[in-house]
Hints:
The complex is a heterodimer. By secondary structure, chain A is α/β, with parallel strands linked by helices. Chain A has four helices and five strands.
Amino acid sequence: MKKCQMLIVEDDAxxxxxxxxxxxxxxxxVHACNDxxxxxxxxxxxxxxxxxxxxxxxxxMPRMNGAELYQALQSDHGMKTIPVVxxxxxxxxxxxxxxxxxxxxxxxxxxxxDDLIKVLEKxxx
Amino acid sequence: xxxxxxxTLLQEIFENSPAFIAVLHGxxxxxxxxxxxxxxxxxxxxxIGKKLNDAIPEIVGQPFIDILTRVLETGLPFYADEIxxxxxxxxxxxxxxxxxxxxxxxxxxxxxxxxxxxAHGVDVTDKVNARMKQEEADRLFRTFxxxxxxxxxxxxxxxxxxxFNKRWYQYIDGMEGTxxxxxxxxxxxxxxxxxxxxxxxxxxxxxxxxxxxxYRLRRHDGVYRWHAGRxxxxxNHKGEIxxxxxxxxxxxxxxxxxxxxxxxxxxxxxxxxxxxxxxxxASHELRTPLTALKLQSQSLHRKLEKGMSQxxxxxxxxxxxxxxxxQIGKLTHLVDDMLDLSRIQSGKLTYKFESAxxxxxxxDVTERMEEQFSVAGSRLNVRLxxxxxxxxxxxxxxxxxxxxxxxxxxxxxxxxxxxxxxxxQNKALLSVQDEGIGIAPENLELIFNRFERxxxxxxxxxxxxxxxxxxxxxxxxxxxxxxxxxxxxxxxxKVELPL
Lengths: 125, 499
């Protein structure tokens, strides 16, 4: 499996496609999943050494949402070391406060490309 | 014969007795002897040696002389309790009624003949007056208690009811004065309130704390009505509770209103919560296309800034235009739904009825959605008659079909979708069936409500307005819509329209 620097978990196909293109344009490798279940399956299929440098995840997704995915990651010895960035709309923060630690990294939705590049530079360089 | 010592003793008793004593002689009842108490009651008149009707002229016309005559003639003593006698307590004063316990008995005179009367007795006027005052107060209280619209009662310190006012008897069986009714033997409290009542009442009796309760009491016609029960302890001068004074006030209407108000409040809160949830879902749904469009424009901008516009491939350009159109379509759809909701709620959703072919409309819609179906991997099976002309709003029915097909796509999860249109008994029947996640029985009614969906908003996108709007449109055309479904087996939505 090809090593990727950033894992995107986002259920909207168009946004997924765009994020992929933008990240690749910036010179990073990226893999995109539709939901939490897909993301977990993807991570489980690889060696710990090949884990992405960062996971950017949406909150509202079918099958397994962001909060559930985060819990699953935290309960795995290896996966919990991967930095997680939440793509959240303002106001969503209040909706699932207990699911995430208070200091968790977020970027606002609608997403700003500069914010995205900052995240890439911070974690994936 | 009595000894001189006995004589002195008798004299002492005579002088100091709290009873009034007089000895009257012969048929004219001449006063022979009176003690100080007797003088006191007749106003200290000089009466010794005088006939009764001369000494106390006001006695004439009262029954005493007749009684005295009878006692003297027959020898049978006369006893009376609380007999009224009108006396002048001061010379020239007005007559005053005194009450006396009185005994007349025949005794021997100094010659040994049974010719004297011993009249003695006690002035009980103060006692009688006090009792009459008490009786008067009681009468006043009863009149007052009976005049109240409340059910009033008095209980003794251990809780036995000693008095109920008339209103009680009217309430329990419509007849006045049903005697011997006791709440402990035959409670009229609602079974659900009885134990609570006993506990509260027992607590008040034990502690002396005022009794306050709301409970239902059964009226004579069997109807339970809410009452506010109150009782306060009544204490004597020593501070001991001698009775409890209580009332029951009918608060039934107030209680009912309270219930209605509470219902309204619950509904209001639910609708506020639904609105908040809707706003949160709506903003999330609006953000998704905005994110896609924003990312697109920003990435283009970035390329232009870097002078890399030439590097944009034809393929990428096509994909970008596709994304833009899809996301604009999503935004338009969201805004249309919100607008429709607002129109429905204000009663301003209007229809343009015209003769149209349902088959043609359905074909149009399915053609338009073909690509979506193929992307989702859903096979679309359509069975249509040749023609089915109806009077309807074409635009709104396109919306109905789009909504039903979109749902079948969304919840069908890639399963085949079957669309069938048929005609029977002056009715057109449309069915849209998927083989997806299905709907739990408890949600079957719910899904047509606005903002509702059978699965959590986390899992499926959309405003939750589609079926609500669809139902409004179908019903405005005189038709009806319903769903048959089984979890994990899929759902079939049916629309019936009059021809």
